[in-house]
From TrEMBL:
<feature type="transmembrane region" description="Helical">
    <location>
        <begin position="162"/>
        <end position="184"/>
    </location>
</feature>
<keyword id="KW-1133">Transmembrane helix</keyword>
<feature type="transmembrane region" description="Helical">
    <location>
        <begin position="191"/>
        <end position="213"/>
    </location>
</feature>
<feature type="transmembrane region" description="Helical">
    <location>
        <begin position="42"/>
        <end position="63"/>
    </location>
</feature>
<keyword id="KW-0325">Glycoprotein</keyword>
<feature type="domain" description="GP-PDE">
    <location>
        <begin position="228"/>
        <end position="482"/>
    </location>
</feature>
<keyword id="KW-0472">Membrane</keyword>
<feature type="transmembrane region" description="Helical">
    <location>
        <begin position="90"/>
        <end position="110"/>
    </location>
</feature>
<protein>
    <submittedName>
        <fullName>Glycerophosphodiester phosphodiesterase domain-containing protein 5 isoform X2</fullName>
    </submittedName>
</protein>
<dbReference type="GO" id="GO:0006629">
    <property type="term" value="P:lipid metabolic process"/>
</dbReference>
<feature type="transmembrane region" description="Helical">
    <location>
        <begin position="122"/>
        <end position="142"/>
    </location>
</feature>
<dbReference type="InterPro" id="IPR017946">
    <property type="entry name" value="PLC-like_Pdiesterase_TIM-brl"/>
</dbReference>
<dbReference type="GO" id="GO:0008889">
    <property type="term" value="F:glycerophosphodiester phosphodiesterase activity"/>
</dbReference>
<keyword id="KW-0378">Hydrolase</keyword>
<keyword id="KW-0812">Transmembrane</keyword>
<dbReference type="Pfam" id="PF03009">
    <property type="entry name" value="GDPD"/>
</dbReference>
<dbReference type="GO" id="GO:0045666">
    <property type="term" value="P:positive regulation of neuron differentiation"/>
</dbReference>
Length: 590
């Protein structure tokens, strides 16, 4: 009987070399293996997948949190006392980390689909751990400094859920190729059954996910309410320093329906506009009164406050990255701004026939005007000559002293509490105003103003929810949104949803059937090869390939008669250029 050692024929595998080289630094063929990956490498693959999912969540968070970037910097300022734009390094590190982890995950999936053994290079392991730990520390820090912002994730799903569903559906459908290859081509084990069961459960959950979320913009067009009124929160602070006359003028130029400002009472009873507790961030108090820069802003008199510059900080810090868009004339005007009084704001609103929303900060108990702040504010309203019906303020305290002025609550209340307190309007943060709550308030004739609304997607879902007005730091952005960014009828969405699910199901079923068919074909081919002469198989393989594509590493036949103990040797002589081979006994003959 003749015992054959098959020819080893190696082909060039550029793509495989690229994938295994970058992922595991295995550029040579002998460094690669198609054996099962070790448990250690499978653990690293799970760590890589976990890092990807965490970074995906982190990147999505910062994408939707752009609406509140200035609020984040303001929170950091209140803790550190120094104004810095912390979003720039966070966005840069998130982009780099997410791109790196995504690239490694794609390479790992290619390894699995090509049947290559996973072997992550040690440098990449350090990189994955660094990205994972950095992201975890970032999540912990944001939760500590800006914990309330996590609510924007749920709010954003009202606008992005239909599109995220299609993306997840596409990803889960694509993963079916790997799952089918693992389940069909391997020997059946309990672990394979578990993998298949988990995949089926995830697939069904994705198919039925639209039943779980509510999107206000999935509605018939005729039910869409009028466009919400836009309130310039502190004017137009992206284009000019907040709470200054030039900022409010810019807001009016961009078509706002009302102006919103933060009011503080000076030590001599003059209401002026200031958001912070101190004057450090938005004035040059550190240069003019260095010893008093940490004092409460209300402890300065109006003459001292008026002597401060309230515009230079905007040009130096560029909090909204808009200074470069300003003209030389605008920069000159901004650089000469002073602190604005309430009287100046109300007179501007009266000339523009605009309404005002005032957020009044009551003085501390030790303040000389602690008991007379209300009269100081009312005096400014009366002196400005503006109609009292056009002035709304929060909080809704001292209602018995307010005659003719509108008051709004800045906290979420039940309908019964609103009726008991005689309130007709609410000013709520967008995270506190759900679609259901808004509909309930409107049904009971309670006007709702939502803040801060700076991004078109948030403005669109509030518009679809029927909100009468929104308060924004970016009226120039919302002015360019004449219609919700997307609006779809329920029937149209149901058609897209069901069609995409059916197409996905057909693709997944086809992939599993194709993998099963490939398995049967491979078994048939192997069974056919067992019935053929190995010498014919080798000679046919050599004859069909050119010397350019085939590198013959080893060619040897060892003949032995295992039944009768007779040993003989024959050597195979190959002539690739002639396409044939012949035997010679005892030696090689031509």
């Amino acid at each position: 009987m003749v015992k054959h050692q098959p020819l080893q024929v190696y082909e060039k595998q550029v793509f495989v070399s690229f994938v295994t080289g970058i992922y595991g630094c295995r550029w040579k063929r002998y460094q690669r293996s198609q054996d099962n990956s070790s448990r250690w490498e499978c653990t690293w693959f799970l760590i890589l997948c976990s890092s990807f999912l965490l970074l995906l969540f982190w990147a999505y968070f910062w994408l939707v949190a752009q609406n509140d970037f200035n609020e984040f910097n303001w929170s950091v300022y209140n803790r550190s006392g120094e104004w810095r734009d912390e979003t720039v390094p966070l966005l840069a590190s998130t982009t780099v980390g997410f791109s790196y982890i995504t690239f490694l995950l794609i390479l790992a999936l290619f390894h699995i689909s090509l049947g290559q053994q996973l072997n992550l290079y040690w440098v990449h392991k350090i990189g994955v751990l660094a990205a994972l730990l950095t992201t975890v520390s970032g999540v912990v820090s944001v939760d500590d400094i800006w914990g309330d912002e996590w609510d924007i994730m749920l709010v954003s799903l009202q606008a992005t859920a239909p599109f995220l569903h299609l993306g997840v559906l596409l990803s889960v459908t694509a993963v079916s190729w790997l799952v089918a290859g693992y389940v069909v081509h391997k020997e059946r084990t309990n672990f394979q059954v578990m993998v298949l069961l988990v995949y089926v459960i995830i697939l069904i959950a994705v198919y039925l996910a639209p039943l779980m979320f509510t999107c206000p913009c999935i509605m018939d067009q005729h039910r869409l309410k009028p466009r919400p009124d836009i309130i310039g929160q502190r004017g137009a602070p992206m284009l000019a320093p907040e709470n200054t006359l030039i900022s409010f003028n810019r807001a009016l130029q961009h078509g706002v329906d009302s102006l919103e400002a933060d009011v503080t009472i000076s030590v001599d009873g003059v209401p002026f506009l200031m958001r912070d507790r101190t004057l450090r961030r938005t004035t040059d108090v550190g240069k003019v009164f260095p010893a008093r820069q940490f004092e409460d802003a209300s402890l300065f008199n109006w003459t001292e406050i008026r002597s401060l510059n309230a515009g230079q900080w905007f040009l130096e810090n560029d909090p909204y990255w808009t200074v470069e868009t300003l003209t030389v004339r605008d920069r000159s005007r901004i650089g000469n701004q002073t602190v604005c009084s309430l009287l100046e704001l109300l007179r501007l609103a009266a000339r523009a026939n605009s309404s005002t929303l005032l957020n009044i900060r009551k003085p501390p108990p030790e303040h000389p005007r602690y008991r007379s702040w209300f009269m100081d504010t009312l005096w400014a309203v009366q002196k400005a000559g503006i109609s009292q019906k056009r002035v709304t303020w929060t909080p809704d305290t001292d209602r018995g002293r307010v005659r003719g002025l509108q008051q709004a609550a800045n906290e979420k209340l039940s309908v019964d509490e609103i009726r008991a307190r005689g309130i007709t309007s609410l000013t709520l943060h967008y995270s506190k105003a759900s679609h259901k709550d808004i509909q309930e308030y409107l049904a009971n004739n309670v006007s709702v103003t939502v803040y801060p609304v700076n991004e078109p997607w948030l403005f669109s879902i509030l518009w679809c929810s029927g909100v009468p007005s929104v308060s924004s730091n970016a009226p120039q952005v919302l002015q360019k949104v004449p219609y919700p960014i997307w609006l779809m009828s329920q029937n149209a969405y149901n058609f897209i949803w069901i069609t995409s699910d059916l197409v996905s199901l057909a693709i997944v079923t086809g992939i599993f059937c194709f993998q099963k068919l490939c398995l049967y074909c491979n078994r048939w081919r192997i069974n056919g090869m067992h019935n053929c002469n190995p010498e014919q198989i080798m000679l046919s393989a050599v004859a069909q390939r050119s010397s350019r594509d085939v590198n013959i590493m080893k060619e040897k036949l060892i003949f032995s008669d295992l039944n009768n103990g007779v040993n003989s040797t024959e050597e195979l002589s190959l002539y690739p250029e002639n396409g044939y081979a012949r035997y010679s006994h005892g030696g090689l003959s031509r």
